[in-house]
């Protein structure tokens, strides 16, 4: 602006000199008008117009546009997009999938299958071998065919007999079990048809399930025990002599053991031997006849 005013002032001075050179008469008026025109017009108009327009437009336009647009766009877009996408996707997916699959699948399969199968098989085999060994080495004889009686008989055999014991020892263990666990009950048994298989089974089952019975019941159960251990036996009908010397109707059994026959009387041994029950176990005819009588022609000789 100062430069423009100086140029205008210089032009005014040149214009005045030119007018003075033209003549003296006209020097006064033209000089005044010229000076007035030059000093007034050029000094006011150029000072206002050029000062406002150039100062406002260049100062506002260049300062706003370059400062706002470049600063916002580059700063916002690069900072948001690159920071979110790379940080979210890689951090979630790799951490979830690899940790879940390897931890569950390998831990369940190896731990379950090998632990169950070996634990069940050894626990069952010993039970089968134990019961089988008694039945194969001790209870090797004849069954009655009555499931209740046969199961009860086998249970007692497994309880008191041993696979390592002899036949005589196992028969003695069963004899002892009967004298200690069974009691006498006066019951009349119909022997009109003798000791049939049906009668023996019926009265033996009554005794082993109720633990009470007469001499016929004891004879029948002892016969079943002998048969089951492989020592065939028969029931005998006869008499025994009581303490007063009277003969009383009675029953017992005779079994075959090691090729010889022997008398076995459980009830008499329990009630009439004063605690010496074994004196009535595997007895010969000679000794047995001191307290018993029977029709020797109907039964094997026990010599």
Envelope shape = rod-shaped
Question: How many DSSP E strands?
Answer: 7
Task: Report how far apart the termini are.
Answer: 165 Å
The structure class reads: alpha+beta
Strand order of the largest sheet: 6-5-4-3-7
Strand-residue proportion:
5-15%
Number of domains: 2
**Could you tell me the mean pLDDT?**
74
Share of helix among residues?
A: 55-70%
**Rg computed from alpha carbons, rounded to a whole number of angstroms:** 68 Å
- CATH level-3 fold name of the largest domain: C8orf32 fold
Order of helices and strands: HHHHEHEHEEEHEHE
Number of helical segments with 4 or more residues? 8
Low-confidence stretches: 22-131
Give the name of the CATH architecture of the largest domain.
Roll
Largest sheet composition: 5 strands, antiparallel
CATH class of the largest domain: Alpha Beta
Molecular structure report:
This protein is α+β, with helices and mostly antiparallel strands and 303 residues long. The chain has two domains: 2-82, no CATH class; 141-298, C8orf32 fold (Roll), CATH 3.10.620. Helix content is 65%, strand content 12%. It contains eight helices and seven strands, in the order ααααβαβαβββαβαβ. The chain has helices at 2-21, 28-137, 147-160, 167-181, 197-210, 215-228, 266-271, 285-288; strands spanning 183-184, 212-213, 233-241, 247-257, 260-264, 281-283, 292-294. The strands form two sheets. The protein has a five-stranded antiparallel sheet with strand order 6-5-4-3-7. α5 (197-210) links the parallel β1 (183-184) and β2. α1 (2-21) packs antiparallel against α2 (28-137), α3 crosses α5 and α5 crosses α6. It is rod-shaped and about 195 Å long. It starts with a helix and ends in a 9-residue tail after the last strand.
């Amino acid at each position: 602006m100062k430069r423009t005013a100086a140029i205008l002032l210089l032009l005014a001075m040149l214009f005045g000199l030119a007018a003075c050179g033209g003549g003296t008469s006209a020097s006064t008026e033209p000089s005044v008008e010229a000076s007035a025109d030059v000093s007034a017009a050029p000094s006011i108009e150029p000072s206002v117009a050029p000062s406002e327009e150039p100062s406002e437009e260049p100062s506002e336009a260049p300062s706003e546009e370059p400062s706002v647009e470049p600063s916002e766009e580059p700063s916002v877009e690069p900072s948001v997009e690159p920071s979110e996408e790379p940080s979210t996707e890689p951090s979630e997916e790799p951490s979830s999938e690899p940790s879940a699959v390897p931890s569950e699948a390998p831990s369940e399969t190896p731990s379950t299958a090998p632990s169950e199968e070996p634990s069940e098989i050894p626990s069952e085999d010993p039970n089968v071998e134990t019961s089988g060994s008694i039945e194969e080495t001790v209870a090797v004889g004849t069954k009655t065919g009555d499931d209740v009686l046969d199961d009860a008989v086998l249970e007692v055999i497994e309880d008191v007999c041993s696979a390592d014991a002899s036949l005589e020892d196992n028969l003695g263990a069963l004899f002892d079990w009967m004298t200690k666990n069974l009691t006498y009950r006066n019951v009349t048994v119909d022997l009109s048809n003798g000791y049939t298989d049906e009668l023996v089974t019926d009265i033996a089952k009554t005794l082993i399930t109720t633990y009470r019975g007469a001499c016929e019941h004891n004879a029948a159960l002892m016969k079943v025990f002998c048969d089951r251990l492989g020592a065939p036996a028969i029931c005998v009908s006869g008499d025994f002599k009581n303490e007063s010397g009277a003969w009383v109707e009675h029953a017992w059994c005779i079994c075959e053991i090691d090729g010889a026959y022997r008398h076995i009387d459980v009830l008499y041994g329990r009630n009439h031997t004063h605690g010496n029950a074994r004196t009535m176990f595997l007895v010969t005819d000679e000794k047995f006849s001191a307290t018993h009588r029977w029709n020797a022609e109907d039964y094997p000789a026990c010599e």
